[in-house]
Automatic annotation (TrEMBL):
TM regions (residue ranges): none
Segments forming C4-type zinc fingers: 60-75
Record-linked PROSITE patterns: RECR (PS01300), TOPRIM (PS50880)
Domain of life: Bacteria
Organism of origin: Olsenella porci
A single GO molecular function term of this UniProt record: zinc ion binding
Keyword annotations: DNA damage, DNA recombination, DNA repair, Metal-binding, Zinc, Zinc-finger
Gene3D superfamilies tied to this protein: 3.40.1360.10, 6.10.250.240, RecR Domain 1 (1.10.8.420)
Domain Toprim: 83-178
Pfam families referenced in this protein's UniProt entry, alphabetically: RecR_C, RecR_HhH, RecR_ZnF, Toprim_4
Family annotation (InterPro entries): DNA_Rcmb_RecR, Rcmb_RecR, Rcmb_RecR_Znf, TOPRIM_dom, TOPRIM_RecR
Family of the protein in this entry: Belongs to the RecR family.
Record-given protein name: Recombination protein RecR
Gene symbol of the encoding locus: recR
Amino acid sequence: MPEPNDGRALQRLLDELGRLPGIGPKSAQRIAYYILESDAETARRLSSAILDVKRQVHFCPICFSYATRDTCDVCSDASRDRSRICVVSEPRDVSAIERTDSYHGLYHVLGGVISPMDKVGPEQLHVRELMGRLADGEVKEVILATNPDVEGETTATYLSRVIRPLGVTVTRLASGLPVGGDLEYADEVTLGRAIEERRSL
Ligand SMILES: [Zn+2]
């Protein structure tokens, strides 16, 4: 629904752009003027891309990554190695690992990390669904790829403790990733190497 003309259309755009991550006031201004100076079709494509992503993208019911069809591209790809599941905290971590091209198994997105301070325990994450996926014995290895920070390590330790009794090999990304850093910001070579040189827990 377009807002009524209150004379603040440009300011509203600047405010909305300024709320985006990584966009400061200067960038917001640059983007706003770019849109203002573009033709109507360019503006329409941008706004419909934003609306479509909200309407058409949902969580994959198997791995909880983002999906545009019933299940995500990875879960629906028959060529993926179904004996491995890489556990990450957020869907964007899946993209980071996919970019390395070092991993061809499946994923499981927890939807966060264990954080007593934020009152997030295993029950608030997709841990039960992960355990369900391990029940039929097809998965031989679970790679814990939570971030190398305190909460990521706590989450990995917890998962390793509950998964190992199932007889599944549990591995953790090799060190070399910046401690306290975010998987998302690791370069592809470093992250790819961390996957290849993963260690048993
Ligand atoms: Zn999936």
